[in-house]
């Protein structure tokens, strides 16, 4: 189960953003989890609570948003829900999907924290493309 | 005051960045990494026991790093090939991460290494999420594991750049339905190559080295649909 590694990454990244932002305590973190990301939301929630202990995120709520797997066909332009297990073959022309439109996401989208009114918003850190 | 911040950060960004740095560094010195994933017992070590000597006979400098929760058994087996081998004990961790791998390569990996085979922890779930800086990701499944393995572990098979079926000599006794297996792989990862191997009969001998060398030489490697995610 790698959800503990994922939870520790979430806590680490949120702390890095929240401390310079003058946060006193993080109340809520929203994470998007794609259907094909290979992460189990319930397992992540369990690990998140443990990973938050003794950090700025102690007691924070984790909200997860589910994103379905969706693929598009390059030749015919059709788009479809891949389902689970995913079907990456176009039902119309049976060609392989050209692109996965969504479903592999695993990202922190929002963080809510208590802060003093004078502190600036943190600058978003440039991120590489997810592989 | 309560503040809401739009972070938009990929959770695994740190690993992805570390993997990118490692890939760049190793490629610059002429080393190509092959990441091998499978269930425990599929035959990763047995395949490497065959492929490492074949590569050495061809004058190719190879090395292998093998990860397990416990025991140095796999390194002992692979070291018989004469290639540099390192055993990594993960102390219970179910997968390797890029910075862990980089740390283990430091001070160990010979400069002349052309191909580095990384035998990941036997697990088809967690290792799938971690790029190790490889140029070729190989997923193995043995004929005794069932034709529906690609459907049960779609992320692992969906991100494979080469699928190797092992223990093909047992296909008959195991009633392995090759056509069904291939159809299931095609469903989650259209276009990926599926190769049958057996270390007993010699079927597919050298195929891992051949594909690894092709990747090392910059030949086009299969890009899975799942890896073409715009997310």
From TrEMBL, chain A:
User: Where is Ni(2+) annotated to bind?
Assistant: 2
A Gene Ontology biological process noted in the UniProt record is: protein maturation
MF-aspect GO terms: nickel cation binding; zinc ion binding
The annotated region (Disordered) lies at: 112-131
**InterPro entries in the cross-refs:** HypA/HybF
Report the superkingdom from the record.
Bacteria
Q: Which Pfam families match?
A: HypA (PF01155)
Residue spans of biased composition, Pro residues class? 119-131
Q: Which residues bind Zn(2+)?
A: 73, 76, 90, 93
Keyword annotations for this protein? Metal-binding, Nickel, Zinc
Its biological purpose = Involved in the maturation of [NiFe] hydrogenases. Required for nickel insertion into the metal center of the hydrogenase.
The UniProt similarity line reads: Belongs to the HypA/HybF family.
Name under which the protein is recorded: Hydrogenase maturation factor HypA
Taxonomy, top ranks, is: Bacteria, Bacillati, Actinomycetota, Actinomycetes, Kitasatosporales
Q: What gene name is given for the protein in this entry?
A: hypA
TrEMBL record, chain B:
Write down the InterPro entries for this protein, in alphabetical order.
CobW/HypB/UreG_nucleotide-bd (IPR003495), Hyd_mat_HypB (IPR004392), P-loop_NTPase (IPR027417)
Q: Does the keyword Transcription regulation apply?
A: no
Could you list this entry's UniProt keywords, alphabetically sorted: GTP-binding, Hydrolase, Metal-binding, Nickel, Nucleotide-binding, Zinc
Q: Which domain of life is it from?
A: Bacteria
Q: Which PANTHER family match?
A: HYDROGENASE MATURATION FACTOR HYPB, HYDROGENASE PROTEIN ASSEMBLY PROTEIN, NICKEL CHAPERONE
Q: Which family does it belong to?
A: Belongs to the SIMIBI class G3E GTPase family. HypB/HupM subfamily.
Read off the NCBIfam families from this record. Answer: hypB (TIGR00073)
Q: What is this protein called?
A: Ni/Fe hydrogenase formation protein
């Amino acid at each position: 189960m790698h959800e503990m590694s994922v939870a520790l990454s979430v806590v680490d990244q949120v702390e890095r953003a929240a401390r310079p932002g003058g946060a006193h305590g993080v109340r809520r973190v929203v994470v998007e989890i794609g259907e094909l990301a290979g992460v189990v939301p319930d397992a992540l929630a369990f690990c998140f609570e443990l990973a938050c202990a003794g950090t700025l995120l102690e007691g924070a709520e984790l909200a997860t948003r589910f994103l379905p797997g969706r693929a598009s066909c390059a030749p015919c332009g059709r788009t479809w829900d891949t389902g689970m297990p995913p079907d990456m073959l176009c039902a119309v022309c049976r060609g392989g999907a050209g692109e996965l439109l969504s479903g592999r996401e695993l990202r922190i989208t929002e963080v809510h924290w208590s802060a003093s009114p004078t502190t600036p918003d943190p600058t978003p850190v440039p991120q590489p493309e997810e592989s | 005051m309560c503040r809401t911040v739009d972070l938009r950060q990929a959770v695994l960004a740190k690993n992805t960045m570390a993997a990118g740095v490692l890939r760049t560094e190793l490629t610059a010195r002429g080393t190509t990494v092959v990441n091998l994933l499978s269930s425990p017992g599929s035959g990763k070590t047995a395949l490497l026991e065959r492929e490492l000597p074949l590569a050495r006979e061809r004058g190719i400098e190879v090395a292998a790093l093998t990860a397990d929760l416990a025991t140095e058994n796999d390194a002992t087996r692979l070291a018989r090939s004469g290639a540099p081998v390192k055993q990594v004990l993960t102390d219970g961790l179910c997968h390797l991460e890029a910075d862990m791998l980089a740390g283990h390569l430091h001070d160990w990996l010979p400069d002349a290494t052309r191909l580095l085979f990384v035998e990941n922890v036997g697990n088809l779930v967690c290792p799938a999420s971690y790029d190790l800086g490889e140029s070729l990701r190989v997923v193995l499944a043995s004929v005794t594991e069932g034709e529906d393995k690609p459907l049960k572990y779609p992320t692992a098979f969906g991100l494979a750049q080469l699928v190797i079926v092992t223990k093909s000599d047992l296909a008959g006794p195991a009633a392995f339905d090759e056509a069904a297996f291939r159809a299931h792989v095609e469903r989650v990862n259209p276009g990926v190559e599926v190769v049958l191997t057996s270390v007993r009969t010699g079927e597919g001998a050298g195929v891992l080295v051949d594909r690894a060398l092709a990747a090392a030489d910059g030949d086009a490697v299969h890009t899975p649909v799942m890896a073409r995610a715009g997310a």
